[in-house]
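Notes from the 1:1 (GR / supervisor)

We went over the backlog. Supervisor wanted to see one worked example end to end before approving the batch request, so GR pasted a single chain during the call. The sequence is below; no edits were made to it. Supervisor asked that the structure be written out right there so they could see what the output format looks like.
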Amino acid sequence: MKHREERRGFWSALVGRFEGSGRSRREFAAEAGVGLAIFQYWLYKLRRERQPAVTGKVRVAEVRLVPVTMRARTASARLEIRVAGVRLRVPMGADPGYVARLAAALREARAC
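Structure output shown during the call:
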């Protein structure tokens, strides 16, 4: 019984350190010297235990905010594809359906 409590305490402390680290699971496990699979097992197990009990079919999930860094979008950002010997540059964010129809039309025109 003592061994089980020690193991649980070890993983609980490790998961606590991970949650405040801002690192990926893979990076953190490697730095801690533990296998990724066993680390994820304990991470999910301990998180499930902390969640409130299920009421009906609705489970209240913990909200976790993570920092996000956005880079300014440049007007020159383009997607370049080559279709039927033609280089086509379209702006990032262009409608994929439009680009697909345009590529198909180029292919058909080249075949004629």
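Supervisor's comment: The radius of gyration is 25 Å.
Batch request approved.
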